[in-house]
Amino acid sequence: MLLExxxxxxxxxxGGMGSLLQKEGLQPGESPENWNIEKKEIVRSxxxxxxxxxxxxxxxxxxxxxxxxxxxxxxxxxxxxxAALENVRCAAQEANKEKYYAALDVGPTGQLLKPLGNxxxxxxxxxxxxxMVLGEQAGADLIHIETMSDAYEVKAAVLAAKENTSxxxxxxxxxxxxxxxxTGGDVPSVVALLEGLGVDALGINCGLGPEQMLPILNxxxxxxxxxxxxxxxxxxxxxxDGETYYDVAPGEFAKTMQEIVKNGACxxxxxxxxxxxxIRAMAEACKGMEIIKPxxxxxxxxxxxxxxxxLGEVPVIIGERINPTGKKKFKEALKAHDLDYILKExxxxxxxxxxxxxxxxxxxxxxxxxxxxxxxxxxxxxTNLPLQIDTVDAKALEAALRIYNGKxxxxxxxxxxxxxxxxxPLVKKYGGVVVGLTLDETGIPETAEGRLAIAGKIIxxxxxxxxxxxxIVIDVxxxxxxxxxxxxxTTLEALKLVREVxxxxxxxxxxxxxxxxxxxSIINANxxxxxxxxxxxxxxxxxxxxxxxxxxxxxxxxxxxxxxxQNYIERCGQMQADKPATSVNNQFDLKxxxxxxxKEEAHHITSELIKIEKPLDIINQYLIPALDEVGQGFxxxxxxxxxxxxxxxAAKAAFEVLKEQMGNDAEAQSGKDKIVLATxxxxxxxxxxxxxxxxxxxxxxxxxxxxxxxxxETIVEAVLKHDIKLIGLSALMTTTxxxxxxxxxxLREKAPECKVMVGGAVLNxxxxxxxxxxxxxxxxxxxxxxxxxxxx
Amino acid sequence: MDTRxxxxxxxxxxxxxxxxxxxxxxxxxxxxxxxxIADVKSIYRIFEISHLNANELKLGKMTxxxxxxxxxxxxxxxxxxxxxxxxxxxxxxxxxxxxTDIPKAVVFQASAxxxxxxxxxxxxxxxxxEFHQLGQYLRPRFSPGYGDFSILHQKEILEMLxxxxxxxxxxxxxxxxxxxxxxxxxxxxSKTNENCHKKGCEICSKTDCLYxxx
Lengths: 792, 214
Fold this sequence. Notes:
The structure holds two protein chains of two kinds.
Chain A: H1 2-5, E1 11-12, H2 18-23, H3 35-38, H4 40-53, E2 57-59, H5 77-94, E3 101-106, H6 121-137, E4 142-148, H7 151-164, E5 169-173, H8 187-197, E6 201-205, H9 210-223, E7 228-231, E8 238-240, E9 243-245, H10 250-262, E10 265-268, H11 276-286, E11 300-303, E12 308-311, E13 316-322, H12 328-335, H13 339-352, E14 356-359, H14 368-382, E15 387-390, H15 394-403, E16 409-414, H16 417-430, E17 433-437, H17 448-464, E18 472-475, H18 487-502, E19 505-509, H19 520-533, E20 538-541, H20 546-558, H21 566-578, H22 590-595, H23 599-609, H24 615-636, H25 641-662, H26 666-670, E21 674-679, H27 687-698, E22 702-705, H28 712-721, E23 726-730, H29 734-750, E24 755-759, H30 765-770, E25 775-776, H31 780-790
Parallel strand pairs in A: 1-10, 2-3, 3-4, 4-5, 5-6, 6-7, 7-10, 13-14, 13-20, 14-15, 15-16, 16-17, 17-18, 18-19, 19-20, 21-22, 21-23, 23-24, 24-25
Antiparallel strand pairs in A: 8-9, 11-12
Chain B: H1 3-11, H2 21-37, E1 41-53, E2 56-59, E3 62-65, H3 67-72, E4 78-85, H4 89-100, H5 102-133, E5 137-138, H6 154-161, H7 163-167, E6 170-171, E7 177-178, E8 182-190, H8 200-203
Antiparallel strand pairs in B: 1-2, 1-4, 2-3, 4-8, 5-8, 6-7
Helix pairs in contact in B: 1-5, 2-5, 4-5
């Protein structure tokens, strides 16, 4: 019934609860939820006040009632939630309100999710699931997820609601005056995420007063096709004597709320500082106002946690480099679980100008589901570019869609019935923009019309699931011209046709076109320009290719997409300036260059040197002496950490040149001494461990890096698996040294041969002895010396 | 050299030594970047203090056993609880540098710490002036982890400030604040102007510390 009224008439929410309870004596830090039982008269009288003032929807007093926030308390969650909803119903009865909706109020957990924090996505989901199931059982009419400032947490909450209840789901988040969430998301990225997840209404609450919410409301209204909720505070929070207060009076509040209705909100209410008087004034002022009915918005938006990329007029670049196909190094990195390699590839593409990154980690010998999940999460901890999940494994696709923070691209679905049956339900459930390949059971049609027909079939089939064509991007497929002379022409025709007939966005793996031809970048770049000219919305390309990026920037400048040709000038001005800089400073020898920490020079000089000297000689004559000198300087206090690391970086650049030259000397690789490094469970600062890693690698140890927040069991497992003689553990705080101690205990039991070195801000020799470590390293160099001693 | 650069240099372990030019440049670069991406948010609230005995006091509903905090708050009836964060983007950036450029990561993290201190000082100074007009004086800020003021109080402090909701400042199960570049502190309010300049670093008993402010 609620859903039938939604977006058709104006509905009134209630106002503040917490601020009123504080007035009644609730102490800072005390759980308001307990009052549902202990002071239910007060809670009921507040609800009643709102009903009498005209609220249609009243929130039960369950904001913090989740296992992560509400624990170690005297009442079970079930008791609290039952009592809270009962309070709403009693209040409605007391107010003689017949037609009303009791909402389960769901607020944030108060913790940040991984990878930023250390709350697992699944744990947040479980906590929300528990309260939502209880809420439905207790008779809630809807779930209102509110005051959220992290899009990722919102996703966990919405999934929990949709998967475990059949209640309508409303979501409101807190934007600051710049239109940003506390964790960085902007308005369109939140809209894209929530629409993708299929919520029933969305909007904004808390943080701002009605006046300040107007511009944000306008931005929401620009992007969303859903009914909009607006629940402001009674003004911006002010402080007097350390107490927070709000000073927009009911009359003024009501007046601005009229504006808010005129600007597109259709469910309105109040948040902190608002009272039944505010809601009464608002309801009286706004009653009978015509709402602006939600209208369809045609934008094709993909998002990350903080950013939206729109596929529209201006073409965008999808970086193709995170893909093992035809890349030996990448395959090796995947097999060795070297995530840093993949992450560096991502950063490089971002710096080169990619807007979206394709992610493909499929290899026959690896667990693609686990790897995809891990890579997606790691990528989202360092880049805010939206990702394109690229896999043929439905399980890997679902795992990635679930864990992804935002609305991703999905690569891909085809016109094959089986493919559509598998992919569309997932896209519908998690949200996403899906690439539709114009091929089906009969193969790839030779004609543009044939491909158009399959595009039509895909669009029609998606409709059955409620997936709109704005969330489908058609790939008409680029065929290799060396084997199909008409291939490019057909593709270009099909591009044009698909745009004209279906008005959908398009995508293309551009470089296929030149397979088997020499100097492929020339053909690729020209074809890329032609494709954009014929309506390509997003090219999947290599952003490190000069020719391709030149084509892209030229096209944008020529088509008037590049204001004042700014991007073009920036790029090409750079190219000219770059020319003379190719002469690298050669006045120093390799040893000096490494001591000075000059990375590029180290690379350059080593590349020259290797033509006349043997790799091993270079290592012994230049690299080792340089590292030793820097290390000793660090010991003596004449060289400092940043310098030590710059030298390490320069040495690494030199080693990389040598490694390439030495080729795949598998023996040299496997003969290395292996050391496991980990930041212990509960600890999420791993810069110290990463410094140690760089130095150990410099001294040619092989480091197996288990990352941060690593449970003792995982550490022991790795030690046993790789037959490890030395492990380094890092902990930053007194509270996490406990898990270090636990880890050592388990290691002693299961792997008594393994030596343990420890380090971290709060440790000292005494502490290290106490937790039974073999060695305490007061700085990063000490770990190198100890490792050398152990492996002597 | 400005104060924040000096602080960053100190965090990098240079002690009294002169800083090299490249690191100095990296520090300046980091500050520029921080100005751009930091989303500084702060919150404060005032609580009454009941002094229970020489090393125990009550701050609102929170009981603290700590002789160093008691000493710091001696003679104060009120205390300001205070939280500041530079926001989540800093952590993402730090993680990125740890993977792509470790010297930069180290310098960036030290600069972010100095940047945070600078903001804390600014906010503290502002409060000082406000309270001074009311005839009240502020003690130097004192954070969980200083002296014997247990870090375990972080949890209650964040709750009392409603910090997760208000400024996005949260804590892990192991009492680490996230975003990592964040501070909480207690600032005593007194009617008399006790001349105490001592701040966190100087009162620490670890006098041989490499990072000590000299």
